[in-house]
């Protein structure tokens, strides 16, 4: 009775009953769809398909199918959805709205899912998932070379300790010795590619606040480099991680992102609420862009220098070698001179001062990229959002 075949048959019967009920409520009415995909534990890409429709004056939102994605292109997703609806006798031309993430195969004008649906119903409207779009805006800024190094370093740290029980035991012991206690044991955070909050958590745990894990990390890494229990490869990796953590440029980049995460935090939280006012959300996005523009470079530098000073003081209580010192200023690097053709009047010049170089190549690039992404990704359907507000009962009194 409890064999896997019997259980699967029961599940399929339940699925068929649910779909019949949905089809009975939907009839031949117009509806909208929400589609998002992710990999499961077996690395199979699975797309969840939800449909929204009105039944007896109530908005219904139902999970209709979970489909295996073998072709993630716009055309492939279109054919997958069309086959799903055709198999269940649902008119694909009745789709009047779609909501996807901001992936390249979902939005745009050519060869993407929205374009194929638009051919079926030219009045169909594409709405972005704005909480996900904010994630993508933050992730856009992480394409900067120094941002890649910073978050790559955090991932390396997490993997370094979690991949070995011996190194994880060192991590636990160092936390206990430095006063965090076993019941407050914290692991270093791994993060996903499109979930900025996981990057925020990973960054804050290492670099933010007086009780951050920065001293614990350095102490644990130093133990690995000096202990005979670990092989040369582990010791070499630990030494490399220490060098990168003590680099002033790494610390400054971390504090740039800490400022950004504080600025966008309230907007992100609001976009995830179930009582979302679209017009208020749009205003919050515009306010966020203005607040990002106010992030001051000198404030970032000041906080970075304070962090270095505080951590150097704190490390005096930890038995670390004297050569482990947290840098509090940028290293002066040599500038490669490129050969100039004899008839050239001038040559391209990059900032010689390392602080100014960081401001131009890292700070301003990250801030400008974030402002541009927010402006470009949130600009779609602005007029529609404004008009839709008047369909909310609380705005009925505003109509004249």
From TrEMBL:
> Which Pfam family, giving just one, matches this sequence?
DUF4371
**Which InterPro entries does its entry note?**
DUF4371, RNaseH-like_sf
Record domain DUF4371: where: 14-111
State the superkingdom: Eukaryota
According to the record, the signal peptide region is none
The protein's name: Zinc finger MYM-type protein 1-like isoform X1
Source gene?
LOC136083595
């Amino acid at each position: 009775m409890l064999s896997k075949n019997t259980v699967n048959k029961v599940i399929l019967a339940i699925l068929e009953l649910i779909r019949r009920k949905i089809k009975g409520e939907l009839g031949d009415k117009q509806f909208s769809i929400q589609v998002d995909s992710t990999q499961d534990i077996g690395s199979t890409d699975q797309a969840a398909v939800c449909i929204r429709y009105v039944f007896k004056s109530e908005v219904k939102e139902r999970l209709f199918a979970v489909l295996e994605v073998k072709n993630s292109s716009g055309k492939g997703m279109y054919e997958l959805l069309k086959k799903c609806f055709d198999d269940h006798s649902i008119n694909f031309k009745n789709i009047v709205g779609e909501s996807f993430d901001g992936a390249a195969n979902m939005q745009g004008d050519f060869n993407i899912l929205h374009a194929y649906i638009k051919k079926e119903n030219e009045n169909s409207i594409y709405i972005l998932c704005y909480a996900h779009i904010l994630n993508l805006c933050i992730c856009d800024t992480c394409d900067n070379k120094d941002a890649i190094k910073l978050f790559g370093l955090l991932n390396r740290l997490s993997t370094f300790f979690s991949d070995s029980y011996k190194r994880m035991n060192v991590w636990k012991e160092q936390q206990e010795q430095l006063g965090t206690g076993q019941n407050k044991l914290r692991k270093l955070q791994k993060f996903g590619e499109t979930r900025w909050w996981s990057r925020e958590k990973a960054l804050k745990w290492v670099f933010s606040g007086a009780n951050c894990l920065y001293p614990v990390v350095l102490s644990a890494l130093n133990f690995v480099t000096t202990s005979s229990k670990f092989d040369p490869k582990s010791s070499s990796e630990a030494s490399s991680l220490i060098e990168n953590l003590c680099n002033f440029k790494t610390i400054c980049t971390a504090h740039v992102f800490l400022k950004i995460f504080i600025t966008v935090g309230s907007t992100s939280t609001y976009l995830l609420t179930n009582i979302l006012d679209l017009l208020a959300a749009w205003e919050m996005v515009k306010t966020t862009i203005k607040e990002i523009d106010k992030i001051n470079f000198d404030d970032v530098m000041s906080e970075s220098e304070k962090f270095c000073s505080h951590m150097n003081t704190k490390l005096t209580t930890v038995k670390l070698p004297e050569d482990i010192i947290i840098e509090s200023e940028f290293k002066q690097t040599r500038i490669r001179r490129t050969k100039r053709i004899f008839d050239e009047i001038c040559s391209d010049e990059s900032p010689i001062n390392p602080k100014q170089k960081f401001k131009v190549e890292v700070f301003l690039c990250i801030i400008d990229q974030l402002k541009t992404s927010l402006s470009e990704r949130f600009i779609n359907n602005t007029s529609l959002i404004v008009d839709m507000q008047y369909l909310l009962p609380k705005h009925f009194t505003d109509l004249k």
